[in-house]
Amino acid sequence: MTTGHHRQGEVVAGTADEGTTRMSGPAPTSGLSRRQLLGGSAALGAAAWLLRGTIGPDSAQAATPVPPALPAGTELYQRVFQNWSGEIRTDQLWTCAPRTPEEVPALADWAHANGWRLRATGYRHTWAPLTVAAGTPESARILLVDTSRYLTAISVDSPTTVRVQTGATMEALLTHLAGRGLGLTACPAPGELTVGGVLAIGGHGTAVPAAGEVRPEGHGYGSVSNQVVRLTAVVLDPATGRYTLRSFGRSEADSAAFLVHLGRAFLTEVVLRAGADRPLRCVSRLDIPASELFARPSGAPGSGTGTGTGTGTGAGTGDGGLGGVLGGVLGGVLGGVLGGGGGPRTLADFVERDGRVEAIWFAYTEYPWLKTWSVTPNKPLASLSVDHPYNYPFSDSIPEPVARLAGDIITGAWGSAPLFGQLQYLVAKVALTGDLTDLLLSGDLLRQLLSGEVLTHLLAGGLRSDLWGPSRTLLQYIRPTTLRVTANGYAILTKRADLQWVVSEFAAYYRELLASYQARGEFPVNGAVEIRVTGLDDPASCGVPGARPPLLSALRPRADRPEWDTAVWLDVLAFPGTPGLERFARELEQWLLRTFDGTRAGLRVEWSKGWAYTADAAWSDPDLLGRVIPDSLRAGGGPGWDEAVAVLDRHDPHRVFGNPFLDGLLK
Ligand SMILES: Cc1cc2nc3c(=O)[nH]c(=O)nc-3n(C[C@H](O)[C@H](O)[C@H](O)COP(=O)(O)OP(=O)(O)OC[C@H]3O[C@@H](n4cnc5c(N)ncnc54)[C@H](O)[C@@H]3O)c2cc1C
After folding, report:
1. Is 265 a pocket residue for ligand 1 (Cβ < 6 Å)?
2. Is 266 touching ligand 1 by the criterion CB < 6 Å?
3. Residue 325 and residue 334: Cα distance in Å, rounded?
């Protein structure tokens, strides 16, 4: 594994590598440098990371074995694979960047003939070891196939569909659609993800129909994968015994296995359905306590009949003027009077009103950052009009005090997590609303950290609590320069009326678990909890008769539970290497499985993130990997896990597109 012949300091394999001089070795979970953690990638153009840190096959320093007799013209170099969070880091691996889709089947034939395997790679933003595992040695016969360099074409397919190669970014895709007056209802928050990467894991955003909202043609409330109309995959042609490009229409049964495939296939191009763009208004607020936002639904504790029918108070919804303020005050008072979560400011109330919510609940704090998006054709008077994505600069360019404290934490000051949570809350509150009250009421330390200079900086770009624009400007809001955290991820499938029950059960348990660790002097979480809500993958969204939902999507509806129409997405974020994190994540996961056991709600994992926790590691628990996860996609009967595995095996019987982790999982 150790590679003394590499040029020290030259391996800059992606944004996460900036400033790194380590050449190889195990995943640097506790050894992340401050610069790695904070990215610093803003200074690094894509070209820089493509060229620096690569070693060509002719280089005297290239490691052996060189892939033998590659198809002529293959552009080949070596590169350390490091994922965004830095938790997966490998030796230098051979990498190529095909210029055309046709190069990929030729590579697959080569791989099969020579005993190598191909791993498609986009921006390497996935936490789970779906591409390669941490510590993969250079002796592994793995050829990484980077789509992001050349397979990036986007073109018009029809007035309501787009043809996109899988290496194109989601940002480029949404920009193209916007240029044609089209948009998606929801999508992942970062724009720097490849379309192929997002489809592989069933990428999602946050949206269900608001009260009275009827799904417009071409729109969907499930995964991006569910918008696919046609796809091109690299498959074995049984007639010739060679790999070939094959197009699958969505009405063709096998396509359902390729729509979410975890990297067990290779897609070169897809055609996606979109709908007429609907401008959005995004309102942020930090004035509702978690005890109210995530309150148990009214009715007997724990048995909630569900809220989901609230009418909302108008708080923060109206024109942002007196109505909004009064609504906020009244909402608070009423919420308090009614108690027990029957009040009008629960998460379910906002979902009912706007259909689109995200709650970011910083650890050890009481007031989550709640974002709500509403379909708003014309600019409201109070909203700031935006024409570009990424409108929360304070979360993309980490303010200096936050960076400093984060650096202290990852170098050992784990007990500063509560202070860190408070600091993140205050930064968000000040930058979004300009309201300094909480800061003035906070302790000396926080007031010192957020000095006048920092506040001036935070407020310089104007307040961001009420934004309006074309959907893409508000759906994409995270840059890769945000704090480098790791995350677990789950989708809880339930009926809409039980949404608040799911959220409240989770919030209560999370709070209790965090407190019990804290009482023992442990701080396993130092990032936020993120909660989002989507619909399921209704194939009608793609508009193709006979279409089936993606078989491996966490959002595939369950045949035996037609009333389950909603998924609550739960993530807990923390710095990689935080002591006790995996133990905490395991306890949480086991509780989630017990609580959402298929009776009133069911659990599926979010493929790109952390799951199957033992007390020491993610993606490791044998019972989760061998039984619970497959069963979560079998439950309810009908086509599911087993069909997906069989179809993917049939089209790639040599398992050229796979790795040992997927070999173990997908069986
Ligand atoms: C800060 C951050 C925020 C995120 N937010 C969200 C979010 O809001 N919603 C969400 O759903 N996800 C989110 N994600 C997860 C992200 O969507 C996935 O990790 C996605 O797979 C990353 O895309 P990528 O281009 O980096 O793919 P990679 O990580 O490079 O690849 C992911 C998987 O896809 C496979 N793959 C890539 N291209 C192809 C192809 N052409 N053919 C076949 N297989 C392929 C790879 O082999 C691998 O198995 C977030 C990730 C980060 C780091």
Report:
1. yes
2. yes
3. 14
Q: Does residue 444 register a pLDDT over 60? A: yes
Q: Does the pLDDT at position 304 exceed 70?
A: no
Q: Which residue among 193, 260, 357, 530 is best mutated to probe the pocket of ligand 1, counting the most ligand atoms within 8 A of its Cβ? A: 193
Task: Tell me if 126 CB under 6 Å of ligand 1.
Answer: yes
Q: What is the DSSP letter of 610?
A: B
Whole-angstrom CA distances from 657 to 116, 348, 644 are 10, 41, 14
Give the DSSP per-residue string, 339-400.
-TT-STTSHHHHHHHHSEEEEEEETT-S--EEEEEEE-SS--TTSEE--SS---HHHHS--H
CA distances from 610 to 582, 589, 621 (A): 10, 10, 12
Q: pLDDT tens for residues 317-359?
A: 333 333 333 333 333 333 333 333 344 799 999 999 999 999 9
**Average predicted confidence (pLDDT) for the chain:** 87
Strands 267-273 and 161-165: antiparallel
Radius of gyration, alpha carbons of the chain: 24
Euclidean distance between CA atoms 403 and 397, whole angstroms: 9
Q: Phi-psi region for residue 455, left (φ > 0), alpha (ψ -120 to 50) or beta?
A: alpha
User: From CA 519, how far away is CA 143, in angstroms rounded?
Assistant: 48
Q: Say if ligand 1 is within 6 A of residue 207 CB.
A: no
201 Cα nearest atom in ligand 1 = 21
* Residue 646 pLDDT class (50, 70, 90 cuts): very high
Ligand 1 center from residue 199 Cα (angstroms): 8
Q: Answer yes or no: are the C-beta atoms of 41 and 480 closer than 8 Å.
A: yes
pTM: 0.88
**Ligand 1 contacts CB of residue 517 (under 6 A):** no
Q: DSSP H helical segments within 181-302, as ranges?
A: 195-201, 255-258, 290-293
User: What average pLDDT does the segment 389-418 reach?
Assistant: 93
Q: Which of these, 265, 271, 267, 221, lies nearest to 251 by C-alpha position?
A: 271
- What sign results for the dihedral spanned by CA atoms 379, 382, 387, 389? negative
Q: Which residues pair with 597 in a beta bridge?
A: 602
- Ligand 1 atom closest to residue 204's alpha carbon, by position in its atom list: 11
Nearest-atom number in ligand 1 for the CA of 532 is 8
Mutation choice for ligand 1 from 198, 532, 655, CB with most ligand atoms inside 8 A: 198
Cα(194) to centroid(ligand 1), Å: 7
- Protein residue with least CA distance to atom 44, ligand 1: 263
Q: Residues with catalytic annotation?
A: 125, 358, 530, 532
Integer Cα distance of 429 and 370 in angstroms: 11
